[in-house]
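Project standup — Tuesday

K.O.: blocked on the structure for the chain from last sprint. Re-posting the sequence here as requested.
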Amino acid sequence: MYTTLGNLLYDSVSPNTGDIAIGLAGQQAFAELDVRARIIDPFEPNMPSPLIVGGGELIRVTGDPFYDSFRQRGRHILNAAGVWSSADDLDYLREYAFVSARSQREVEVLRKWVPDAEVVPCATTILKSDHFEIPGVEQGEPLVGIHMVPHSLRLIEDLIPLIDAIPYKKVFIPFTHYNSDASFMKSLPFDRTNSVILDRLTPLQLHSVIGQMKYVTVSSLHASIFAYSQNVPFISVHQKKAEYYFADRGLIENLVKSRAEFVEQLNRLEEERPDYSSLVEADQARVRTTFLRYRDLISDHSTADWRESPAALSSVRDVIMLDQAQHVIGDRDLALSYSESRRLKLRADANHLAMDLSRAHTELDELTTAYDLLRTAWWVVFVRETSGFVRRTFRQIAAVFKRS
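H.V.: unblocked you, prediction finished:
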């Protein structure tokens, strides 16, 4: 029976797999400790206390009407938050009972205000999911998971042929739903003769899918964590937040910024299978110990205080979703612009090469004509015809001198 109530405040508004998974992992962790966890709406006008605040990059610069709602004052808990290096006005965190970030690099920002802030791994490291049956896959068949976004194409040159060359059945995994990655991957000219294209899945289904892969190549921090926490080898297209997180685990080489690095990691995964199990066990132990600490900090709040949060204002949600859509469109436009620029450059290079070849052919024709004219000139003919007479005469003279 639940004896304590935990209030989880995170970005539960955006269709972000990682953020939603953080909430689910928090609920699972608390359930093991007989704590009933409730998800608090970020637009709740009267926030309960204490709150466990965390999930995604919540600690940012002030001025964003949505993310400012996570700057709650009081004796709350900041759980493994993502932190911008430019984050400001964090004095309110001095009131918190516990403050943590998900990486050493991010916790250094928090320590400017809270010197005893700690590093706590992302709660999704302990996430549990039921088996999801992947359609179109035979039992025991080796699978490689693929997750691409516009950023991937801008960073890794000629990425599509590299993906096509992977010698296993490929499972295309839409993960960042807010990024419309499903339609994006469907629009790319991949060779799909040996592949499965998944529909939109829940975070727990995605967790199970990634856990079934031989390895994955992804473009999301939490897709990377889903792989890492299930000891699935992963290649992750570089993001700063992923760099910070995996640098703490000595896995920075898994983050790739170029075609050469991507190819190197693909080759490495063909030769060896890395084992993250000892790192994962340490992370999971740290997360569970931290949630036990959270339970002690909130233990005087019983389930009698339970109440559902009222529905948030739909107009505010609509503004947030519209803003996300605009960012997605902008990111896709950048990728298309980059692709078009490369196409135009290649066409220009081809035109220059064609012009160079044309000039070379013209020069060759001119040289051939000049050679033909030279070969038939009277004096060349005279020299060619008389040269034999001269050689024979000198040989005869030499022979006379030799006999004498």
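K.O.: great, moving the ticket to review. The two ends are 131 Å apart (CA to CA). Residues 308-315 have pLDDT under 50 and may be disordered.
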